[in-house]
Write a structure and sequence with these properties.
686 residues; alpha/beta; Alkaline Phosphatase, subunit A; 26 helices; 12 strands
């Protein structure tokens, strides 16, 4: 037995396995994942398979070449794992090849990325360092292997044994994907489904480790799998009792389209959306009917801006309008572009993909632009930067924006250097020059001034530093706040321009942050917002709906950018189908009293006033004595998982263009709108 153990292939296997597995365990500890978990056994098996395979490959090489080869492989795994920990810390997601389109654009973030880097992440390099030292100084002292005929025969035998072991371990690994004792009943997605398609990086990394996730990511990126598997959904979208608040929708044309559809993806989506609930009208329906609206996505504006001393204009809108204390803007891959997209169409973006860019040619007739277009509004959109990050001139057009104006169209001076961003004051002035206020209008404005970096000198980062000279904030925090001051001045300028044009009273402002300023270090965020690291509070951003003639009110409902479209559609009494949106109308009376009063994060985690569900670890944490029944959590997770999957399938299959064009073929001429009572009676009889 000693002869077989004292073998070059065996010693390569052992020497590679130990650091590889230690890297995976270190990563789990640093990421707060459970070490005493069945997933660790699965990861240990995969480490064995990979180590066996590497040692076999090394047996075909000369010793020095084999050592260099194994060192390079382990180094790549080490760096990949270290960077994944950093990306999760910086962006809130694990990086994927699906976001590779952004690599050129985000290279400028590298300084911010490493400045936020937790020094403990560098400990992941230790196993690799020991591996190198072992290969150079210790291996030959521990293993005394003579090169002779016996060793060659021994190598062949060991190779044959290793091949058998790889096959056996592969079979065992496959069993772990479905073995009941290795499954977490509260896990959002089954382990087997994730192995086939790792659409949720957080859960995938937890269950498979970084090495296998990396391999699965490459596989699914290079070899696309077909989504065409028919799934039918049960549901009941009928009203139990028709009332004056019932939202009546005639599905005749949709049913005809569905009956003639042969594509399984479209059949699945038709079944899913048609069986969702049609929410009723409520006391807020039509509150702003006929008014203009400006929706503003505020770049990197977190809850630090809720401060009357430093940011009086925003505080005026916040305190005199509808404000939502529990609004979140969860980060995900390409957070700004994807969150902007979700804010426009109320679908979940694809977690491991820069969705807005990749599917820029998709069309969405049910977007916020489309709804206002249908209502006879003039629509437009504005942003004070270039196409370097997101292809908005194409994306917004296909969303339904009547006209998109970028920084060059608006003739706003800008700088190609990452440190400098244009002034949002100029954005408001130039945008208002292009909005025809003599007609009903809807405009979408995406700002940029508060964008990172904050730890480097910049025009607007330095402009108002004197306002914060008496604080104990770091220079990075002061620069961020200085940029917020410039943005607050932009809001003041917008109100002035609306008043000058005589449309302030007839215009509604809807403001939300795309994400909190993650370019700031956590300790700097906490210096201003002490409870930021509790629960998921760091992901909180402001959400405000303001009109000069309204009475202010603060709401405690949990919400996010997903709820913008259905909420605005109800407030303006637009013609819309609530089933087509994954968000909810926040003023639906059932929302505040049901479990749907929640925020869903990019990885499928969610939070309510009762507790927080962590999708990565499949764990529920409660805030008080009240708890959910286990079967309720499973049901909620199933619903949320379906919402994410159906959103993603709708995007990848360009479903809404199919739906819009298909319905045109079967659309019946609308009845006389003045004869609503007769029309509703006919629909009830049907």
């Amino acid at each position: 037995m000693k002869k077989y153990f004292n073998n070059v292939i065996v010693k390569n296997y052992i020497s590679f396995l130990v650091p590889l597995f230690v890297i995976e365990v270190l990563f789990r500890i640093l990421e707060g994942m459970r070490v005493f978990d069945w997933a660790v056994l699965r990861i240990f098996i995969s480490c064995n398979i990979l180590s066996l395979f590497i040692s076999l490959l090394m047996s075909f090489m000369k010793e020095k070449l084999g050592n260099v080869f194994s060192g390079i492989v382990l180094f790549v795994i080490t760096i990949y794992t270290t960077l994944q920990a950093g990306f999760q810390n910086f962006l809130g997601v694990y990086i994927s090849l699906g976001t590779s389109s952004q690599l050129g654009a985000v290279k400028e973030y590298i300084g911010d990325y490493f400045s936020s880097f937790n020094p403990l992440f560098w400990t992941i390099l230790i196993p690799f360092a020991f591996y190198v030292l072992y290969k150079i100084f210790l291996e030959k002292k521990i293993f005394h292997i003579e090169k002779n005929k016996f060793q060659k025969r021994n190598n062949r035998r060991v190779s044959e044994v290793f091949l058998v072991i790889i096959v056996v371990l592969g079979g065992i690994y496959n069993l772990t994907l479905s073995a009941s004792f290795m499954q977490n009943a509260l896990q959002l997605e089954s382990t087997k489904a994730l192995f086939k398609k790792p659409e949720n990086p957080n859960i995938s990394v937890n269950q498979f480790g970084t090495s296998v996730f990396g391999l699965l990511d490459v596989k699914t990126t290079l070899f696309k799998s077909s989504d065409e598997e028919l799934v039918l959904f049960d549901g009941n979208n009928n009203h139990e009792e028709i009332t004056d608040n019932s939202r009546i929708i005639d599905d005749t044309a949709w049913q005809k389209l569905a009956s003639e559809t042969t594509n399984n993806n479209y059949k699945t989506l038709n079944s899913y959306f048609m069986n969702r609930t049609i929410t009723d009208k409520n006391e807020y329906t039509g509150m702003f009917e006929g008014k203009n609206v400006i929706v503003m996505m505020m770049e990197s504006v977190g809850n630090m801006i809720i401060n009357p001393e430093y940011f009086p204009t925003f505080y005026k809108l916040y305190s005199e309008g509808f404000s939502f204390s529990n609004n979140y803007s969860p980060r995900n891959s390409c957070a700004t572009g994807n969150n902007e997209m979700s804010g426009m169409i109320s679908l979940f973006s694809i977690y491991r993909t820069c969705t807005a860019n990749k599917y820029q040619h998709n069309k969405y007739d049910e977007s916020i632009f489309g709804l206002f277009n249908k209502a006879g509004y003039t629509t437009s959109s504005f942003h004070d930067y270039t196409e370097a990050y997101y292809y908005r001139s194409t994306i917004h057009k296909n969303m339904g924006s009547g006209a998109y104006y970028g920084v060059q169209d608006l003739k706003i001076p800008y700088n190609w250097e990452y440190e400098e961003w244009p002034s949002d004051v100029l954005l408001m002035e130039r945008a208002m020059e292009h909005i025809d206020t003599t007609k009903p209008f809807m405009a979408w404005i995406t700002t940029v001034t508060p964008h990172q970096p904050y730890y480097e000198s910049s025009e607007f980062g330095d402009k108002y530093l004197s306002m914060f000279k008496d604080t104990n904030y770091s220079m990075g925090t002061k620069r961020y706040l200085s940029k917020l001051v410039e943005f607050d001045h932009a809001l003041a300028r917008l109100l002035e321009l609306l008043e000058e044009k005589g449309v302030l009273e007839d215009t509604v402002l809807v403001l939300f942050g795309d994400h909190y300023p993650y370019g700031l270090h956590d300790k700097d965020v906490v210096s201003v917002l002490p409870d930021a690291l509790e629960r998921n509070n760091i992901e909180k951003t402001p959400f405000v709906i303001y009109n000069s003639g309204m009475e202010g009110k603060n709401f405690q409902e949990y919400t996010s950018y997903m709820n913008i479209v259905p909420t605005i559609a109800n407030l303006f009494n637009l013609d819309y189908d609530p089933r087509l949106y994954m968000g909810e109308d926040l003023f639906n009376p059932n929302y505040s009293t049901s479990y749907k009063n929640r925020v869903v994060f990019a990885d499928g985690s969610w939070e309510t006033s009762i507790g927080s569900y962590d999708a990565t670890n499949g764990k529920m944490t409660y805030f008080g004595e009240e708890e959910y029944a286990k079967e309720d959590i499973i049901a909620y997770n199933k619903e949320i998982n379906n919402m994410i999957k159906m959103s993603n399938l709708a995007i990848t299959s360009n479903y809404f263009e199919y739906l819009t064009e298909g319905l045109k073929k079967y659309q019946v001429e609308p009845t006389d709108p003045t004869n609503n009572e007769e029309s509703n009676t006919e629909m009830q009889e049907q």
